[in-house]
Amino acid sequence: MSKEGLRPRYAPTPTPDTEHFWEGTRNHKLLLQRCTDCGTVYFPPRAFCPENGSTNIEIFEASGKATLISYTINNRQHPSFESPYAIAIVQLEEGPMMMTNIVDCEQTPEALILDMPLEVTFEKVSDVITVPLFKPVGALS
Amino acid sequence: MTVAVVGASETTELGRIPHLSQTQLHADGAFNALADAGLSVKDIDGIATAGASPVDLTHYLGLEPRWIDGTSVGGCSFLIHVRHAVAAIEAGYCETVLITHGESGRSGIGRGGGGGGAASFAGQFEVPYGPMGPTTLFGIGVLRYMKQYGMTHEQLASVAVAQREWAGMNPRAMYRDPITVDDVLASRVIAYPFHLLECCLVTDGGGALILTKAERAKDFPQPPVYILGSGESVESPMISQMADLTSSRNFRIAGRDAMSSAGISHADVDHLMVYDAFAHLPIYGLEDLGFVERGEAGPFIEEGNTRPGGRLPLNTNGGGLSYTHTGMYGMFALQESVRQVRGEAPAQVDDVNISVCLGVGGMFAAGACIVFGKELP
């Protein structure tokens, strides 16, 4: 989505509890956490299960499959995006919701169909930050 | 006083802790105190903290609070939290309060990590995707709501139309000319599916309230407006992490507690204010407060039930969409509830004995509800 003349996408600062996630995306892996006591899969990353506080958790690689849950299409100018662009919420196959952008797809209500199947793709922002984005299943990138 | 400390602990380590962020330090101290008390996070129904947002802590720890204190006035904030917690527990607002502190004062890991900084959850997991404030985030769940319940664009637009009717009766409203559903849908798309007339105004202004004991209230020149009930909650600093994009947990908890503490039912409510930063807020509010079933608020408003002469007068000042919206509009919703109960509103509803006022904070991050009454029960 980054184009000529646009500022690079915002690069956040990882924290000790999220470092593994960003290391994963740098290696083009989408990593989630699961509570081995209750089975809850959760996101964003934390060192304990948000359902029961248990620290018996494991990190695993998500399938990268998701569906489009909802979105808005921003028409105003953003320094890092070409308007209009959609800000989307997707649900990962494993359960958690995630904000993202949908790429390789027209940014219109006609093209962005709720519940459409998506798959993860990655965009490098900086040496530290690579963000997970999603594209329609089968779309060429 | 009838309140005791039953759990207390510092963080596991002290001194130099570069492997934990500031939020993790809050959590470490919290889990240690919970272990000390033999409690789990699910036993906590009140949260107080300073230097971080109680919203961030609620989401991070997995809490579901009924009482929140974010008083942040420096190093004695936690002493003030203790005092406020005593009052809250004695009042029955909550039973078990967690008060946390965490500060990466030496290592500076995730410092200033609350409220959208680069190291906050929102900074890491929402900001990179290009949100530009409330217009792009607040309504992000509405397409899901529309698909789930079949709400139409026309029904969403009818929220703005009904409130403009009220604004037309209010000389202080910024926009007073009548509008139609077609006008709303023909206005500029700000962030699909939201048109300009479905977004709140941006204005300057302010307001204030003064409260005292009910037994003194009759000594003042104005008729008293009693607070009959109240409720509050916080959920998540990220709208993408709401448990349900089509409903606000905060509205449900705050509304339930406000109505039950007032001892009223929906049929007792003469007047309703729902903080309307965007047109879907009254839709969510009507459903989450239980005035209509899930999915029924769109048709309810479209059919005219909330407009002048309707059976549930809603946002009678014209609301954030037509009256005024400074940014933290909740004060104006309260003011209109007070005016209606006093009987002095520009668009006065007949015989308002009970007014319910529901507010939102952030993008569904926080919620609170106050029940006002003309008489004490």
Structure summary:
The complex is a heterodimer of chains A (141) and B (377). Chain A is built from 1 helix and 8 strands. Chain A is mainly beta.
Which oligomerization state do the chains in this entry correspond to?
A: heterodimer
- Cα(first) to Cα(last) distance of chain A is 11 Å
- Number of spatially distinct domains of chain A: 1
Report strand % of chain A: 25-35%
Percent in helix of chain B: 25-40%
Helix content of chain A: under 10%
Task: Give average pLDDT of chain A, whole number.
Answer: 95
Cα distance spanning the termini of chain B = 26 Å
Strands side by side in the biggest sheet of chain B: 6-9-8-7
CATH superfamily heading of the largest domain in chain B: Thiolase/Chalcone synthase
Number of helices of chain B: 13
Classified by CATH, the class of the largest domain in chain B is Alpha Beta
Strand content of chain B: 5-15%
Low-confidence stretches of chain A: none
Task: Please count the helical segments of chain A.
Answer: 1
Poorly predicted ranges of chain B (pLDDT <50, ≥5 residues)?
A: none
Whole-number radius of gyration of chain B?
Answer: 22 Å
CATH topology of the largest domain in chain B: Peroxisomal Thiolase, Chain A, domain 1
The main pleated sheet of chain B reads as: 4 strands, mixed
